[in-house]
Amino acid sequence: MKLLLTTIKSDNKQTELALKYLYSVLFDSPLDVHVKTFGRNELYSDIFEDIANAQYDIVYFHADSFNIRQLCRVADMVKKAIPNIAIIFGGMEVSFETRSFVKQNDFVDYVIRGEGESVMFNFLKSVLDYEFDFENIAGLAYREGDQVVVNPYDAPVEMESLPFPYEKFEVGSGTVYYESIRGTSDRTVYSQFLPNARVRALSLGRVCTELRYFLANEVERVVFLDKMFNYNTERAYRIFEYIINNDNGITAFEFNIDGDALDEETLRLLAEAREGQFTFNMDVASTNAEVLAACGRGENIYRLMYNTTKLLQSGKVRTEIHLKAGLPLETEAMFARSFNKTYGMAEGMPVHIDSICISKGTALRASANDYGCIYADEAPYEMISTGSMSPDDILRIRAVARTVESYIGNGGFKKSIPRVLNDTGLKPYDLFGRLTGYISRNGLSGKTRKREHLARILYAYTDSLYDDLADSVKHEILKDVIYKDLESMVGEDAMKKFDKKGWELD
Protein backbone atom coordinates (compact mmCIF):
# COMPACT_ATOMS: atom_id res chain seq x y z
CA MET A 1 0.00 0.00 0.00
CA LYS A 2 1.44 3.33 -1.10
CA LEU A 3 0.99 6.43 1.09
CA LEU A 4 1.86 10.07 0.33
CA LEU A 5 2.29 12.62 3.10
CA THR A 6 2.08 16.02 1.48
CA THR A 7 1.43 19.72 1.89
CA ILE A 8 1.97 23.04 0.14
CA LYS A 9 4.54 25.44 1.58
CA SER A 10 2.96 28.17 3.69
CA ASP A 11 3.75 30.80 6.28
CA ASN A 12 3.06 28.25 9.01
CA LYS A 13 6.48 26.88 9.96
CA GLN A 14 4.90 23.97 11.82
CA THR A 15 3.51 22.33 8.69
CA GLU A 16 6.65 20.79 7.16
CA LEU A 17 7.89 19.62 10.56
CA ALA A 18 4.56 17.86 11.10
CA LEU A 19 5.16 15.75 7.97
CA LYS A 20 8.61 14.76 9.22
CA TYR A 21 7.15 13.57 12.52
CA LEU A 22 4.48 11.54 10.72
CA TYR A 23 7.02 9.96 8.40
CA SER A 24 9.28 9.06 11.32
CA VAL A 25 6.41 7.40 13.17
CA LEU A 26 5.34 5.40 10.09
CA PHE A 27 8.83 4.57 8.79
CA ASP A 28 8.91 0.99 10.10
CA SER A 29 5.38 0.15 8.97
CA PRO A 30 4.73 -2.17 5.99
CA LEU A 31 3.51 0.85 4.02
CA ASP A 32 5.44 2.40 1.15
CA VAL A 33 5.56 5.93 2.59
CA HIS A 34 6.54 9.02 0.60
CA VAL A 35 6.86 12.67 1.66
CA LYS A 36 6.56 15.63 -0.65
CA THR A 37 6.14 19.35 -0.07
CA PHE A 38 5.00 21.43 -3.04
CA GLY A 39 5.93 25.06 -3.62
CA ARG A 40 3.29 27.68 -2.96
CA ASN A 41 3.56 28.96 -6.53
CA GLU A 42 3.24 25.60 -8.25
CA LEU A 43 0.20 25.22 -10.49
CA TYR A 44 -2.70 23.17 -9.14
CA SER A 45 -2.70 21.14 -12.33
CA ASP A 46 1.00 20.28 -11.92
CA ILE A 47 0.53 19.17 -8.31
CA PHE A 48 -2.50 17.11 -9.33
CA GLU A 49 -0.58 15.42 -12.15
CA ASP A 50 2.34 14.64 -9.85
CA ILE A 51 0.05 12.94 -7.32
CA ALA A 52 -2.25 11.22 -9.81
CA ASN A 53 0.60 9.75 -11.86
CA ALA A 54 2.34 8.21 -8.83
CA GLN A 55 -0.49 5.74 -8.15
CA TYR A 56 -0.87 6.27 -4.42
CA ASP A 57 -3.50 4.37 -2.45
CA ILE A 58 -3.73 6.98 0.31
CA VAL A 59 -2.89 10.69 0.28
CA TYR A 60 -2.60 12.69 3.48
CA PHE A 61 -2.83 16.49 3.11
CA HIS A 62 -1.53 18.54 6.05
CA ALA A 63 -3.51 21.77 6.14
CA ASP A 64 -3.09 25.12 7.85
CA SER A 65 -5.01 28.36 7.45
CA PHE A 66 -2.65 29.55 4.70
CA ASN A 67 -2.79 26.55 2.36
CA ILE A 68 -6.20 24.97 3.04
CA ARG A 69 -7.87 26.36 -0.09
CA GLN A 70 -5.07 25.21 -2.38
CA LEU A 71 -4.98 21.74 -0.83
CA CYS A 72 -8.75 21.33 -1.13
CA ARG A 73 -8.63 22.23 -4.79
CA VAL A 74 -5.89 19.68 -5.46
CA ALA A 75 -7.59 16.97 -3.36
CA ASP A 76 -10.84 17.49 -5.22
CA MET A 77 -9.09 16.97 -8.55
CA VAL A 78 -7.30 13.84 -7.28
CA LYS A 79 -10.53 12.32 -5.95
CA LYS A 80 -12.38 12.94 -9.21
CA ALA A 81 -9.57 11.33 -11.20
CA ILE A 82 -9.11 8.37 -8.80
CA PRO A 83 -12.40 7.76 -6.94
CA ASN A 84 -11.01 4.79 -4.98
CA ILE A 85 -8.10 6.71 -3.49
CA ALA A 86 -8.37 7.48 0.25
CA ILE A 87 -8.08 11.20 0.97
CA ILE A 88 -7.05 12.19 4.51
CA PHE A 89 -6.72 15.71 5.88
CA GLY A 90 -4.91 16.72 9.06
CA GLY A 91 -3.54 19.78 10.82
CA MET A 92 -4.94 22.34 13.21
CA GLU A 93 -7.04 24.00 10.51
CA VAL A 94 -9.24 20.90 10.19
CA SER A 95 -9.03 19.83 13.84
CA PHE A 96 -11.81 22.25 14.77
CA GLU A 97 -15.28 22.45 13.20
CA THR A 98 -14.34 19.11 11.64
CA ARG A 99 -17.84 17.87 10.90
CA SER A 100 -18.74 20.91 8.81
CA PHE A 101 -15.41 20.67 6.95
CA VAL A 102 -16.08 17.07 5.94
CA LYS A 103 -19.69 17.79 5.00
CA GLN A 104 -18.68 20.71 2.80
CA ASN A 105 -15.94 18.75 1.01
CA ASP A 106 -17.16 15.43 -0.35
CA PHE A 107 -13.67 14.47 -1.53
CA VAL A 108 -12.51 14.11 2.11
CA ASP A 109 -12.72 10.56 3.49
CA TYR A 110 -10.96 10.95 6.84
CA VAL A 111 -9.62 13.69 9.12
CA ILE A 112 -6.81 13.31 11.64
CA ARG A 113 -7.66 15.72 14.47
CA GLY A 114 -5.18 17.36 16.82
CA GLU A 115 -1.67 15.98 17.28
CA GLY A 116 -1.62 13.45 14.50
CA GLU A 117 1.15 10.96 15.14
CA SER A 118 -0.67 8.38 17.28
CA VAL A 119 -4.01 8.95 15.51
CA MET A 120 -2.46 8.32 12.10
CA PHE A 121 -0.58 5.27 13.37
CA ASN A 122 -3.70 3.75 14.91
CA PHE A 123 -5.80 4.48 11.83
CA LEU A 124 -3.35 2.89 9.41
CA LYS A 125 -2.82 -0.10 11.70
CA SER A 126 -6.59 -0.66 11.74
CA VAL A 127 -6.66 -0.55 7.93
CA LEU A 128 -3.66 -2.84 7.47
CA ASP A 129 -5.06 -5.35 9.98
CA TYR A 130 -8.46 -5.25 8.23
CA GLU A 131 -10.11 -4.32 11.52
CA PHE A 132 -11.59 -0.97 10.46
CA ASP A 133 -12.64 -0.24 14.05
CA PHE A 134 -12.71 3.49 13.39
CA GLU A 135 -15.17 4.20 16.19
CA ASN A 136 -12.44 3.27 18.70
CA ILE A 137 -9.74 5.52 17.25
CA ALA A 138 -9.61 8.75 19.24
CA GLY A 139 -8.91 11.81 17.12
CA LEU A 140 -10.35 10.34 13.90
CA ALA A 141 -13.25 11.70 11.85
CA TYR A 142 -14.72 9.56 9.09
CA ARG A 143 -17.77 8.95 6.94
CA GLU A 144 -20.29 6.27 7.79
CA GLY A 145 -22.88 6.18 5.04
CA ASP A 146 -24.38 9.65 4.83
CA GLN A 147 -23.19 10.55 8.32
CA VAL A 148 -19.94 12.12 9.49
CA VAL A 149 -18.57 10.65 12.72
CA VAL A 150 -16.19 12.84 14.72
CA ASN A 151 -14.43 11.05 17.56
CA PRO A 152 -13.15 12.93 20.64
CA TYR A 153 -9.54 14.14 20.59
CA ASP A 154 -6.81 11.68 21.42
CA ALA A 155 -4.74 12.15 24.59
CA PRO A 156 -1.85 14.61 24.18
CA VAL A 157 1.26 12.97 22.71
CA GLU A 158 4.16 12.56 25.10
CA MET A 159 7.15 14.23 23.45
CA GLU A 160 9.61 11.58 24.62
CA SER A 161 7.64 8.92 22.71
CA LEU A 162 8.27 10.67 19.38
CA PRO A 163 11.38 9.93 17.30
CA PHE A 164 13.83 12.66 16.38
CA PRO A 165 12.16 14.08 13.23
CA TYR A 166 15.46 14.65 11.38
CA GLU A 167 16.76 11.11 11.85
CA LYS A 168 15.42 10.13 8.41
CA PHE A 169 16.05 13.48 6.69
CA GLU A 170 19.10 15.44 5.60
CA VAL A 171 19.24 18.70 7.54
CA GLY A 172 21.34 20.59 4.99
CA SER A 173 23.03 23.84 5.91
CA GLY A 174 20.04 26.21 5.90
CA THR A 175 17.18 26.56 8.39
CA VAL A 176 15.63 23.72 10.38
CA TYR A 177 12.50 23.87 12.52
CA TYR A 178 12.47 22.13 15.87
CA GLU A 179 10.10 21.44 18.76
CA SER A 180 11.19 20.82 22.33
CA ILE A 181 7.73 21.23 23.85
CA ARG A 182 4.13 20.59 22.84
CA GLY A 183 1.29 22.63 24.24
CA THR A 184 1.62 26.13 25.64
CA SER A 185 1.08 28.04 28.84
CA ASP A 186 -0.18 30.95 26.71
CA ARG A 187 -3.97 31.09 26.81
CA THR A 188 -4.59 34.31 24.90
CA VAL A 189 -7.99 34.58 23.23
CA TYR A 190 -6.44 34.78 19.76
CA SER A 191 -4.19 31.72 20.21
CA GLN A 192 -5.20 28.39 18.71
CA PHE A 193 -4.71 25.40 20.99
CA LEU A 194 -6.33 22.05 21.68
CA PRO A 195 -8.64 21.85 24.68
CA ASN A 196 -7.07 20.40 27.85
CA ALA A 197 -3.67 20.09 26.17
CA ARG A 198 -1.00 20.42 28.82
CA VAL A 199 2.62 21.44 28.26
CA ARG A 200 4.88 18.46 27.55
CA ALA A 201 8.62 18.82 27.16
CA LEU A 202 11.54 16.78 25.91
CA SER A 203 14.13 16.01 28.57
CA LEU A 204 17.14 18.31 28.75
CA GLY A 205 19.41 15.42 27.83
CA ARG A 206 17.52 14.67 24.64
CA VAL A 207 17.29 18.35 23.63
CA CYS A 208 21.05 18.78 24.05
CA THR A 209 21.76 15.59 22.09
CA GLU A 210 19.57 16.74 19.20
CA LEU A 211 21.03 20.24 19.25
CA ARG A 212 24.49 18.68 19.09
CA TYR A 213 23.41 17.02 15.83
CA PHE A 214 22.49 20.41 14.34
CA LEU A 215 25.73 21.97 15.59
CA ALA A 216 27.84 19.12 14.20
CA ASN A 217 26.16 19.54 10.81
CA GLU A 218 26.77 23.31 10.96
CA VAL A 219 23.14 24.15 10.33
CA GLU A 220 22.81 27.87 9.70
CA ARG A 221 19.72 28.44 11.84
CA VAL A 222 17.58 26.39 14.23
CA VAL A 223 14.11 27.82 14.81
CA PHE A 224 12.37 26.58 17.95
CA LEU A 225 8.63 26.49 17.26
CA ASP A 226 7.81 26.24 20.97
CA LYS A 227 5.42 28.95 22.05
CA MET A 228 6.70 30.70 25.19
CA PHE A 229 9.83 28.56 25.18
CA ASN A 230 10.88 29.90 28.58
CA TYR A 231 7.67 28.85 30.36
CA ASN A 232 10.08 26.96 32.66
CA THR A 233 12.83 29.45 33.49
CA GLU A 234 15.34 26.88 34.78
CA ARG A 235 14.91 24.61 31.74
CA ALA A 236 15.30 27.51 29.32
CA TYR A 237 18.44 28.66 31.16
CA ARG A 238 20.05 25.24 30.81
CA ILE A 239 19.36 25.07 27.08
CA PHE A 240 20.70 28.59 26.52
CA GLU A 241 23.76 27.64 28.56
CA TYR A 242 24.35 24.51 26.48
CA ILE A 243 24.12 26.47 23.23
CA ILE A 244 26.52 29.16 24.42
CA ASN A 245 29.05 26.63 25.76
CA ASN A 246 28.97 24.55 22.58
CA ASP A 247 28.93 27.35 20.01
CA ASN A 248 30.32 26.34 16.62
CA GLY A 249 30.57 29.95 15.46
CA ILE A 250 27.98 29.32 12.73
CA THR A 251 24.62 28.11 14.01
CA ALA A 252 22.08 30.69 15.20
CA PHE A 253 18.99 29.91 17.27
CA GLU A 254 15.56 31.53 17.26
CA PHE A 255 13.05 31.34 20.12
CA ASN A 256 9.56 32.58 20.93
CA ILE A 257 10.05 34.15 24.33
CA ASP A 258 7.81 35.37 27.14
CA GLY A 259 9.71 38.58 27.85
CA ASP A 260 7.95 39.04 31.16
CA ALA A 261 9.39 35.72 32.42
CA LEU A 262 13.07 36.47 31.78
CA ASP A 263 15.01 36.71 35.04
CA GLU A 264 18.24 38.48 35.95
CA GLU A 265 20.29 35.27 35.92
CA THR A 266 19.17 34.44 32.37
CA LEU A 267 19.83 38.00 31.22
CA ARG A 268 23.40 37.80 32.58
CA LEU A 269 23.93 34.47 30.81
CA LEU A 270 22.66 35.82 27.50
CA ALA A 271 25.15 38.66 27.71
CA GLU A 272 27.85 35.98 27.22
CA ALA A 273 26.40 34.81 23.89
CA ARG A 274 28.07 35.35 20.56
CA GLU A 275 26.57 38.33 18.78
CA GLY A 276 23.94 36.99 16.39
CA GLN A 277 23.75 33.61 18.14
CA PHE A 278 20.21 34.24 19.44
CA THR A 279 17.06 35.83 18.07
CA PHE A 280 14.12 36.30 20.42
CA ASN A 281 10.57 36.88 19.18
CA MET A 282 8.46 38.61 21.82
CA ASP A 283 4.70 38.86 21.46
CA VAL A 284 3.94 42.12 23.26
CA ALA A 285 0.46 42.30 21.69
CA SER A 286 -0.40 45.61 23.40
CA THR A 287 0.87 47.84 26.19
CA ASN A 288 -2.67 48.73 27.30
CA ALA A 289 -3.66 46.93 30.53
CA GLU A 290 -7.37 46.81 29.65
CA VAL A 291 -6.69 45.29 26.25
CA LEU A 292 -4.21 42.77 27.67
CA ALA A 293 -6.77 41.71 30.26
CA ALA A 294 -9.43 41.20 27.57
CA CYS A 295 -6.92 39.08 25.64
CA GLY A 296 -6.14 36.89 28.63
CA ARG A 297 -2.61 38.22 29.03
CA GLY A 298 -1.32 39.01 32.51
CA GLU A 299 2.00 40.54 31.52
CA ASN A 300 3.72 43.14 33.63
CA ILE A 301 4.46 45.49 30.75
CA TYR A 302 7.02 47.42 32.77
CA ARG A 303 8.91 44.22 33.55
CA LEU A 304 8.79 43.33 29.85
CA MET A 305 10.13 46.76 28.87
CA TYR A 306 12.91 46.46 31.46
CA ASN A 307 13.94 43.01 30.22
CA THR A 308 13.91 44.11 26.59
CA THR A 309 16.05 47.13 27.43
CA LYS A 310 18.56 44.88 29.23
CA LEU A 311 18.73 42.55 26.22
CA LEU A 312 19.35 45.48 23.90
CA GLN A 313 22.04 46.88 26.18
CA SER A 314 23.95 43.61 26.00
CA GLY A 315 24.03 43.96 22.21
CA LYS A 316 24.13 40.17 21.85
CA VAL A 317 20.52 39.06 21.38
CA ARG A 318 18.53 40.20 18.39
CA THR A 319 15.06 40.99 19.72
CA GLU A 320 12.03 41.20 17.46
CA ILE A 321 8.88 42.71 18.94
CA HIS A 322 5.40 41.79 17.72
CA LEU A 323 2.28 43.91 18.22
CA LYS A 324 -1.23 42.76 17.34
CA ALA A 325 -3.65 44.96 15.38
CA GLY A 326 -7.38 44.49 15.98
CA LEU A 327 -7.43 43.25 19.56
CA PRO A 328 -10.64 43.36 21.63
CA LEU A 329 -11.43 46.81 23.08
CA GLU A 330 -8.46 48.48 21.39
CA THR A 331 -8.93 51.69 19.39
CA GLU A 332 -6.51 53.01 16.79
CA ALA A 333 -5.36 55.70 19.26
CA MET A 334 -4.64 53.00 21.86
CA PHE A 335 -2.77 50.96 19.26
CA ALA A 336 -0.71 54.02 18.32
CA ARG A 337 0.32 54.48 21.96
CA SER A 338 1.30 50.80 22.16
CA PHE A 339 3.38 51.16 19.00
CA ASN A 340 5.10 54.29 20.29
CA LYS A 341 6.01 52.61 23.59
CA THR A 342 7.18 49.46 21.87
CA TYR A 343 9.28 51.32 19.35
CA GLY A 344 10.81 53.32 22.18
CA MET A 345 11.95 50.23 24.08
CA ALA A 346 13.11 48.35 20.97
CA GLU A 347 14.75 51.22 19.07
CA GLY A 348 17.16 49.79 16.55
CA MET A 349 15.53 46.35 16.63
CA PRO A 350 12.76 45.05 14.35
CA VAL A 351 9.16 45.82 15.28
CA HIS A 352 6.36 43.94 13.53
CA ILE A 353 2.64 44.68 13.38
CA ASP A 354 0.70 41.44 13.01
CA SER A 355 -2.92 41.41 11.90
CA ILE A 356 -5.28 39.44 14.11
CA CYS A 357 -6.81 36.37 12.51
CA ILE A 358 -9.74 34.67 14.23
CA SER A 359 -8.70 31.08 13.67
CA LYS A 360 -10.87 28.06 14.35
CA GLY A 361 -10.48 26.84 17.90
CA THR A 362 -9.68 30.24 19.42
CA ALA A 363 -11.61 31.76 22.30
CA LEU A 364 -11.91 34.98 20.30
CA ARG A 365 -13.83 33.15 17.56
CA ALA A 366 -16.30 31.89 20.17
CA SER A 367 -16.77 35.38 21.66
CA ALA A 368 -16.45 37.39 18.44
CA ASN A 369 -19.97 38.82 18.73
CA ASP A 370 -19.27 40.04 22.28
CA TYR A 371 -16.51 42.27 20.94
CA GLY A 372 -18.26 43.25 17.71
CA CYS A 373 -15.68 41.39 15.64
CA ILE A 374 -16.29 40.94 11.93
CA TYR A 375 -13.81 38.69 10.14
CA ALA A 376 -13.31 36.97 6.81
CA ASP A 377 -15.24 33.74 6.27
CA GLU A 378 -12.32 32.05 4.54
CA ALA A 379 -8.88 31.21 5.92
CA PRO A 380 -6.84 32.84 7.31
CA TYR A 381 -9.92 34.61 8.79
CA GLU A 382 -8.47 38.11 8.97
CA MET A 383 -10.14 40.67 11.20
CA ILE A 384 -12.14 43.23 9.23
CA SER A 385 -13.48 45.37 12.07
CA THR A 386 -14.24 45.30 15.78
CA GLY A 387 -16.55 47.19 18.08
CA SER A 388 -13.64 49.55 18.73
CA MET A 389 -12.08 49.76 15.26
CA SER A 390 -13.83 50.45 11.97
CA PRO A 391 -12.75 48.77 8.73
CA ASP A 392 -11.02 52.05 7.81
CA ASP A 393 -9.06 52.01 11.07
CA ILE A 394 -7.81 48.47 10.50
CA LEU A 395 -7.02 49.12 6.83
CA ARG A 396 -5.03 52.17 7.86
CA ILE A 397 -3.06 50.18 10.44
CA ARG A 398 -2.41 47.43 7.90
CA ALA A 399 -1.02 50.01 5.47
CA VAL A 400 1.20 51.45 8.22
CA ALA A 401 2.28 47.88 9.06
CA ARG A 402 3.61 47.42 5.53
CA THR A 403 5.63 50.62 5.81
CA VAL A 404 6.97 49.62 9.22
CA GLU A 405 7.95 46.21 7.85
CA SER A 406 9.74 47.82 4.91
CA TYR A 407 11.77 50.24 7.02
CA ILE A 408 12.39 48.52 10.35
CA GLY A 409 10.91 45.02 10.07
CA ASN A 410 14.27 43.57 9.09
CA GLY A 411 16.27 45.85 11.35
CA GLY A 412 17.16 48.23 8.53
CA PHE A 413 17.27 52.04 8.59
CA LYS A 414 18.15 51.73 12.27
CA LYS A 415 19.82 55.13 12.40
CA SER A 416 17.73 57.03 9.84
CA ILE A 417 14.31 56.63 11.45
CA PRO A 418 15.51 57.61 14.96
CA ARG A 419 17.24 60.63 13.40
CA VAL A 420 14.01 61.82 11.77
CA LEU A 421 12.08 61.31 15.00
CA ASN A 422 14.69 63.21 16.99
CA ASP A 423 14.90 66.10 14.52
CA THR A 424 11.16 66.53 14.00
CA GLY A 425 9.72 65.55 17.38
CA LEU A 426 7.17 63.29 15.69
CA LYS A 427 5.88 60.21 17.46
CA PRO A 428 6.83 56.92 15.72
CA TYR A 429 3.28 55.97 14.72
CA ASP A 430 2.66 59.49 13.40
CA LEU A 431 5.84 59.36 11.32
CA PHE A 432 5.03 56.00 9.78
CA GLY A 433 1.43 57.06 9.20
CA ARG A 434 2.51 60.18 7.33
CA LEU A 435 5.17 58.26 5.39
CA THR A 436 2.51 55.69 4.41
CA GLY A 437 0.26 58.49 3.15
CA TYR A 438 3.13 59.96 1.12
CA ILE A 439 3.84 56.58 -0.49
CA SER A 440 0.16 56.10 -1.34
CA ARG A 441 -0.44 59.62 -2.72
CA ASN A 442 2.58 59.43 -4.97
CA GLY A 443 1.95 55.92 -6.29
CA LEU A 444 5.17 54.59 -4.80
CA SER A 445 3.88 51.31 -3.34
CA GLY A 446 5.49 49.33 -6.14
CA LYS A 447 8.90 50.78 -5.27
CA THR A 448 8.98 49.67 -1.63
CA ARG A 449 10.43 46.24 -2.39
CA LYS A 450 13.96 47.54 -2.97
CA ARG A 451 15.98 49.12 -0.18
CA GLU A 452 17.54 51.61 -2.58
CA HIS A 453 14.06 52.94 -3.41
CA LEU A 454 13.13 53.00 0.27
CA ALA A 455 16.14 55.22 0.93
CA ARG A 456 15.12 57.61 -1.84
CA ILE A 457 11.49 57.66 -0.66
CA LEU A 458 12.48 58.47 2.92
CA TYR A 459 14.75 61.30 1.81
CA ALA A 460 12.15 62.73 -0.57
CA TYR A 461 9.37 62.51 2.03
CA THR A 462 11.39 64.26 4.71
CA ASP A 463 12.16 67.21 2.43
CA SER A 464 8.97 69.00 3.45
CA LEU A 465 9.43 68.07 7.11
CA TYR A 466 12.83 69.71 7.23
CA ASP A 467 11.55 72.67 5.23
CA ASP A 468 9.12 73.25 8.09
CA LEU A 469 12.08 73.16 10.46
CA ALA A 470 13.89 75.67 8.25
CA ASP A 471 17.03 73.62 8.74
CA SER A 472 18.48 72.40 5.45
CA VAL A 473 21.74 71.41 7.17
CA LYS A 474 19.92 68.77 9.23
CA HIS A 475 18.35 67.39 6.07
CA GLU A 476 21.77 67.02 4.46
CA ILE A 477 23.01 65.26 7.57
CA LEU A 478 19.99 62.96 7.35
CA LYS A 479 20.93 62.15 3.76
CA ASP A 480 24.33 60.94 4.98
CA VAL A 481 22.68 58.85 7.71
CA ILE A 482 20.28 57.25 5.21
CA TYR A 483 23.21 56.55 2.89
CA LYS A 484 25.18 54.81 5.65
CA ASP A 485 22.15 52.73 6.61
CA LEU A 486 21.75 51.68 2.98
CA GLU A 487 25.44 50.76 2.78
CA SER A 488 24.98 48.41 5.72
CA MET A 489 22.07 46.63 4.00
CA VAL A 490 23.12 46.19 0.36
CA GLY A 491 26.26 45.09 -1.42
CA GLU A 492 28.99 47.14 -3.07
CA ASP A 493 27.60 46.66 -6.59
CA ALA A 494 24.16 47.89 -5.52
CA MET A 495 25.72 50.98 -3.94
CA LYS A 496 27.60 51.74 -7.17
CA LYS A 497 24.31 51.61 -9.08
CA PHE A 498 22.70 53.80 -6.44
CA ASP A 499 25.48 56.38 -6.71
CA LYS A 500 25.17 56.41 -10.47
CA LYS A 501 21.42 57.03 -10.41
CA GLY A 502 21.41 59.35 -7.42
CA TRP A 503 18.52 60.25 -5.11
CA GLU A 504 15.86 60.86 -7.74
CA LEU A 505 12.89 58.49 -7.52
CA ASP A 506 12.21 58.30 -11.26
Characterise the protein shown here.
The protein is of the alpha/beta class and 506 residues long. It has 3 domains: 2-150, Response regulator (Rossmann fold), CATH 3.40.50; 170-350, pyruvate-formate lyase- activating enzyme (Alpha-Beta Horseshoe); 412-506. The protein has 18 helices and 17 strands. The chain has helices spanning 14-26, 44-53, 68-81, 98-104, 116-128, 204-216, 233-245, 264-270, 289-295, 301-314, 332-345, 363-366, 391-408, 416-424, 428-441, 451-469, 472-489, 492-501, and strands spanning 2-8, 32-38, 58-62, 86-90, 110-112, 140-144, 147-150, 175-178, 181-182, 200-201, 221-224, 252-257, 278-285, 317-325, 351-355, 374-375, 383-385. It is globular, with a radius of gyration of 25 Å.
Quick overview of this protein structure:
The protein has helices at 14-26, 44-53, 68-81, 98-104, 116-128, 204-216, 233-245, 264-270, 289-295, 301-314, 332-345, 363-366, 391-408, 416-424, 428-441, 451-469, 472-489, 492-501, and strands at residues 2-8, 32-38, 58-62, 86-90, 110-112, 140-144, 147-150, 175-178, 181-182, 200-201, 221-224, 252-257, 278-285, 317-325, 351-355, 374-375, 383-385. The chain is of the alpha/beta class and 506 residues long. It folds into three domains: 2-150, Rossmann fold; 170-350, pyruvate-formate lyase- activating enzyme, CATH 3.80.30; 412-506.
